[in-house]
UniProtKB/TrEMBL annotation:
Signal peptide location: none
Protein name per its UniProtKB record: Amino acid/amide ABC transporter ATP-binding protein 2, HAAT family
Species of provenance: Jiangella alkaliphila
Domain ABC transporter: 8-236
Keywords from the UniProt entry: Amino-acid transport, ATP-binding, Nucleotide-binding, Transport
């Protein structure tokens, strides 16, 4: 499968909470590549993530992965079907060690590319902290663990919600390198980001989300070189970011 061939197809997706519609006819596709969805706060980016992975049931439209329709299925079914999720806020277990987080999924990983040892190779800092509890890790270490946990599904698609949020530049560098390695190995990555510079470093395609729809698509260079586009779509002071 090439970047031009759709792995993930989202068509006319509608979703929200009760009577409140957040996603309103949203459509896009992702091949074996890194794609970023950027936009101001409140545009529906996290709702999109939660709908893709089954935490929120859509009211219309379709989500297909390798042609299989996934919209409306349970989160565990979607995960097994092939979507790994790195949620905003990481959602780790404070009392479990790094090793225990990874061992929970290690049985399914046997004989496949991503195992706990492979995660430690990707993030050597986690290997150093393998006996530490989730609550004892730095924000960057927690994010590495959240990514590693998602990788153990050995899914063809990884969805990351605000992966650079609150992280130091050196940790963002590690995440950028990890995304590039995943794509080089044939894994698609969908990055939802507020920080434009981090989004551009991770992904070549930038999809701009406005009021629950994909309003425009640009390359990273186009957005970085056009302050007018940044102002129009992302808002003054919320475009480049200070930590990437």
């Amino acid at each position: 499968m090439t970047p031009d061939e759709a792995l993930l197809e989202v068509r006319d997706l509608r979703s929200g909470y009760g009577a409140s519609v957040v996603l309103d006819g949203l459509s896009f596709s992702v091949g074996v590549e890194a794609v970023a969805i950027v936009g101001r706060n409140g545009m529906g980016k996290t709702t999109l993530c939660d709908t893709l992975v089954g935490f929120v049931a859509p009211s219309g439209g379709e989500v297909r992965l390798s042609g299989r329709r996934l919209d409306g299925l349970a989160p565990e079914t979607i995960a097994i079907a092939g979507i790994g999720y790195v949620p905003q806020g990481r959602r780790l277990f404070p009392s479990l060690t790094v090793d225990e987080h990874l061992v929970m999924l290690a049985r399914r990983a046997r004989g496949r590319r991503w195992t706990p040892d492979a995660v430690y190779d990707l993030f050597p800092r986690l290997a150093e902290r393998r006996r530490h509890g989730g609550a004892d890790l730095s924000g960057g270490e927690q994010q590495m663990l959240a990514v590693g946990r998602a990788l153990l599904l050995n899914a063809p698609l990884i969805v990351m919600d605000e992966p650079s949020e609150g992280l130091a530049p050196t940790i963002v560098d590690v995440l950028v390198d990890a995304v590039h390695q995943l794509v080089a190995e044939g894994v698609a990555v969908l990055v939802v980001e507020q920080n434009l510079r981090a989004a551009v470093r991770m992904a070549g395609r930038q999809l701009v989300m406005v009021s629950g729809r994909i309003e425009a698509e640009f390359t990273g260079a186009e957005l970085l070189d056009r302050p007018d586009l940044q102002h129009r779509y992302l808002g003054v002071g919320a475009t480049i970011g200070e930590h990437a």
